[in-house]
Amino acid sequence: MAIQQRAERTRQEILSSAARVFDRVGYERASLARIAGEARVTTGALVFHFATKADLATAVRGRARAVTRITVESACLSTEGVGGTAIDKLVITTHALIRLFETDHMARAGERLARELQSTDPGPGQDCPWRREVGRLARYAVAENALRPGVDATAVAALIGYVITGVELEMRLPSAPADGLWPAESGALHDPAEERLRRIWELILPGLVHPAGPATPAPSKTSSKAPSQGRSATAS
């Protein structure tokens, strides 16, 4: 039993180390030797648990999907019982995702691997929990007549997908120096990722939300985390 427990701890450490390496350098630049060094095990010990780098990537992506699924489900449940609409849930879910990507290397590694291995993994969005949830909520928003006439649920889901991916990618950029392109006063690349997401929602919600909906179509800094009792997350 003790031997099995040690083996399982070693396996989990290898998996976590692989996620950190994939997150930092990507799939192509990661090597079994590099991952073994990160995990402080021999390459032989690593291949005992994961025979190939592809096996490691598959395991990391599976773990990342599980973590992401829990995050999006919890975000939606946080609005239950307080009148949360599909739009509320979309806003809250995206903020929950960005917080996850800021703090969880496994989730970030899964996102990076999904992009880099896309050519060998047809239909990458089909097994992505957050993309499925965004698509579902966009369809619910149409059913609730919460979107402007003519706004298509598929286009909304795609737009939000681009936003999430863009903010996640921007996390990986080094801080940009203040220059003519990015004036210091703009703070564009210096705000926390969740604050940048809030600003993006302020821009895109007026073009999405039905005019008969909430008067102020942008989440506040506090409502992005959970809706207030009896108020919409998109209300002022």
UniProtKB/TrEMBL annotation:
It holds the Pfam family TetR_N. Residues 8-68 form the HTH tetR-type domain. Gene3D superfamilies: Tetracycline Repressor, domain 2. Residues 212-228 have a biased composition (Low complexity). This is TetR/AcrR family transcriptional regulator. The lineage of its organism: Bacteria, Bacillati, Actinomycetota, Actinomycetes, Kitasatosporales. The keyword Cytoplasm does not apply. Coiled coil: none annotated. Keywords: DNA-binding, Transcription, Transcription regulation. It comes from the Bacteria.
